[in-house]
Amino acid sequence: MNEYRYEIKFSLDEIAYAEAMGWLQVNTHATKKFENRYVNSLYFDNPSYSSVRDNITGLSDRSKYRLRWYNSTHSPNDVISPSFEQKIRKGRLGRKEITPLTNLNENFVSLPLHQIESDIRLELQKTNVLFDDYYTSVLAVKYLREYFEDNEGLRITLDSKIQFLYVDGMTSRLSDCPKLYSRRYVMELKFDIKLKDYVSVLLKSLNMSPTRHSKYLIGLSKFGSILYI
Predict the structure, then answer these.
(1) How far apart are CA 10 and CA 211, in angstroms?
(2) Are 84 and 129 in contact, with CB atoms under 8 Å apart?
(3) What is the rounded distance in angstroms from the CA atom of residue 17 to the CA atom of residue 125?
């Protein structure tokens, strides 16, 4: 996905989640797009935590880097589509530059983290993607995602069962990382710029306010690494 789109997030408790599902079913024409699946992200940052700093200060133009892969709910141990992503933000607009990582096999998650990073860099050397050597893995996030889409192209995702794994630089494998959980849900609306007015009308029937919500920063704050509200 190379074109910018709007990305609007809502952080929900149990009651708000039920209200959001009611709004989705009654006020939108969105239907199930894909089967539910688990989404995994391993975030990278430099020693200065540039991605964190840029987000907290509200820098309009910013980027973050992550390794992303998926697990089926039917076969949770099977790794699907590992890729390297650069998430680029420009205000409320966002886009992703995705590079498939064909050299990572289905067992890569059991490798030491330094080996995963080395394999990623080796694969990226074959492309035009620049990945600074000072960037290392910082935090992993896993959650269950539901996918909906309407005929206009509005995409709505709902994330639950969110868990965070802290990569402290001393831990060798993801399975050994300290783990914390979140009881909140995240709903995100993603849509083309031309659909702004259409979505604005839909949101009038949803009595909720969007919020800045970065799973990367939320996870780091849960482990006491940063202060993020």
Answers:
(1) 6
(2) yes
(3) 43
Given a contact cutoff of 8 angstroms between Cβ atoms, the answer to whether 141 and 219 are in contact is yes
> What is the SS3 assignment for 171?
coil
150-206 pLDDT, tens digit per residue, is 999 999 999 999 999 999 777 789 999 999 999 999 999 999 999 999 999 999 999
Gap between the Cα atoms of 145 and 41, Å rounded: 13
Say what the pTM is.
0.94
Q: Which amino acid is at 24?
A: L
Closest to 166 measured CA to CA, from 109, 216, 108: 216
Burial of 178 (0-12, 13-18, 19+ CB in 10 A): exposed
Neighbours of 69 (CB within 10 A): 21
Give the count of beta carbons closer than 10 Å to the beta carbon of residue 76: 9
CA 93 distance to own-chain centroid? 15
- d(CA 175, CA 107) in angstroms, rounded, equals 12
Residue whose token pair is 């849900």: 185
